Amino acid sequence: MRPSTWSNLSRLLLCSVLLMAGEAMLPVRSQAEELVLVEPVHYVGFLPYYVAFKQGFYRDEGIDFKTVTMDGGSQLVPTVASGRAFALAASVDRNAQAKVAGKVIKAVVNIDARANIYIMARKGLVPANGDIAGLLKGKRIAVTAFGGTPNNMLRYLLNKWNLQPGKDVTLVEVSSTPLVLATMAAHQADVGVSAEPFITQGVAQGVWDEPIYAAKDLGPYTDTAISVSGDSISRNPKLVRGLVKAVIRGLIYTDSHRSEMLAFSKMEFPTASEADLKASLDRTFADQIFSSDGFIPPEAWNLGDAVVRLGGVLKEPVSYDDVVDMQFVESVQKELGHR
Q1: Amino acid 205: pLDDT
Q2: Which DSSP state fits 290?
Q3: How many whole angstroms separate alpha carbon 189 and alpha carbon 174?
Q4: How far apart are CA 271 and CA 265, in angstroms?
C-alpha cells in the first residue's frame, strides 16, 4: 500500500475516533414521558386541552400526550388511582367521591369554570311567570346517570326548588348525553338536561325550545378540571407542572384565537357537522364556560360541595384542600405573567 493511502486511512480513523468521542460527550436526550388522560366523552367542552395538544404545548414540556375516552365516566377515578392513567378530565365532584372512598385525587388546573348544564322543556312548555319549579312538578326529566355532573346538578336544583325525585318528579336516567335528546324525541320525557350541540339539535328538530334554565347562572363552578392522584403530585411534581402549564397555554390560546376555533374543531371532530360545532362554540363563549386562567377559586368548590351533598350523592362535607391543589397553577401564572 502506498504511503499516501496509509495517510488517508489514518486521517479517516482519527476523524472517526474524534466523532465518537464527541458524541459520547453530548447530553443524552430523554424521551418524552407518555401521559394518558382519560375523559368521559370527547366533545367541544374540553376544547382547550385539545388545543394544547395541537399547538405542541405538551411537547414543549416533554410530554407525549394521549387521550382515552371512557364512556359514562364511572371508571375515570379507578383508572387514575390505579396508575393506569396519569390524569382525568371531570368535575371536582369525582374527586370528592374518591376522597370519601379513601382515594386522593386532586384538581390541578381548571377547564370549564361554570356549569355547562342546561334544562330544556318539551316544545310549547313554558314556565308561567318564570316558575320553573311549577313547570317541572309532575314531569318526567331525562338526565344522564346518577353520580355524573348533570345528574348531581339536577338533584341539587330540585332540592332548591323543593321538588323530590320519585315523588314530585320522575327521573329518566340514561347512559349518555345524546340519549337525553332521543328520549325526549320519543316522548318518554317532558324535560331534558343537556348541553350543546344537543340543545341546538333539539331546537332544529322541534323537540324543545331554548333552555328554560342555565346552570352557569349559579356562578363559579368547576364543571371540568384536570385532576391527578395525590401520589403523582408528591412523586412527579415536574410532570404535573408541565401538564398544568400546557393546559393553561391552551386556555389562553383558545380565548385569544376564538376566530380559529371553528376550523380547529372541524379537524378535532371530523364527523360533527359545522352547524353543531358552531352552536357549541357560540354558546360556550357567550356563557363564559371556559376558564380564563386555570384557577379554581374556593367559592367554586363551595358550590360543588353543596351540589354533591344537597343532591344526595355524598353524606359528608369534603374540604377544598382535599380535592383541589392550585400550587402548580399559581407557579405557572407567575412564570407566564398571566394573572
Answers
A1: 93
A2: B
A3: 11
A4: 10
222 HSE (CA, 13 A, CB side): 33
- Angle, CA of 158, 163 and 166, to the nearest 5°: 100
Put residue 283 in one of left, alpha, beta given phi > 0 → left and psi -120 to 50 → alpha: alpha
For the stretch 162-199, pLDDT in tens is: 999 999 999 999 988 889 999 999 999 999 999 998 99
Question: How distant, in Å, are the alpha carbons of 49, 126, 235, 245, 329 from that of 226?
Answer: 9, 37, 18, 12, 11
For 89-109, the pLDDT digits (tens) are 999 988 998 999 899 999 999
| Angstrom distances, CA of residue 167 to CA of 127, 139, 159, 283 | 20, 10, 12, 33
The span from the CA of 205 to the CA of 256, in Å, is 33
Query: What is the side-by-side strand order in the sheet with 105-112?
Result: 63-69, 33-39, 87-90, 224-229, 105-112
Which residues, listed in sequence order, are joined to residue 253 by a DSSP beta bridge? none
CA 6, 7, 8, 10 dihedral sign is positive
d(CA 224, CA 107): 9
Nearest to 225 by CA among 9, 24, 45, 6: 45
What pLDDT score does 136 carry? 97
Q: Which amino acid is at 105?
A: I
Structural domains of the chain in order of their starting residue, each with its CATH number: 33-114+220-336 (3.40.190.10), 118-218 (3.40.190.10)
